[in-house]
Amino acid sequence: MKLKIIASTAIFTLLVIGLSWQGCKKDDNDGPPCTLTNPDLSYTKNIKAIIDQQCISCHVTGSGVPGIVGDYTTYEGIKSRLDNGKVLDRVVVKKDMPQGGGMSQAQRDSINCWIAAGYPK
Ligand code: HEC
């Protein structure tokens, strides 16, 4: 009897740990909290300039870069990658884009806050 209680407690504990771990994994797809105090960000106002400087040398139709996905010269061109979380993942979480580096943390913070705000155009 006692063994049964211990066993079911153990199973229950493992279940809770398992579920919360799943929860964490999901949260990793969200960016860190926005740290800018007064983010006044929109695609047109400030984000397009960052993307033009940091991304479109590769992410443009006909760039010739092997394996390239997406044309980021317009809002519509990058929007599907904002929707599926890929930009957040690669630029803010993994930080492996832009390929080869060269993006300041301030620019990554701007992208993060802009996405957190629903990436207004
Ligand atoms: C020097 C070239 C280069 C630059 C600059 C660059 N990328 Fe990339 N990017 C690539 C290549 C090549 C791939 C495909 C291989 C891979 O996924 O790593 C890629 C893949 C991606 C992907 C995943 C593919 C997908 O599903 O859309 C995202 C998102 C992305 N880049 C975002 C960006 C953003 C945002 C910038 C600018 C901040 C940027 N990249 C700058 C070369 C580049």
Structural class: mainly alpha
Q: How much helix is in the residues?
A: 55-70%
Number of DSSP E strands? 0
Average pLDDT reading: 87
Biggest sheet record: none
Distance between the termini: 63 Å
Low-confidence stretches: 23-28
Give helix and strand order, one letter per element, not per position: HHHHH
Number of helices: 5
List cofactors, ions and other ligands: heme C
Coarse shape: extended
Rounded to the nearest angstrom, the radius of gyration is: 20 Å
Q: Roughly what fraction of the amino acids lie in strands?
A: under 5%
Q: Your description of this structure?
A:
There is one protein chain. The chain contains five helices and no strands. By secondary structure, it is mainly α. It has a domain at about 45-115. The longest helix is centred in the first third of the chain and has 26 residues, at about 1-25. It starts with a helix and ends in a 5-residue tail after the last helix. Heme C binds near residues 67, 91 and 97.
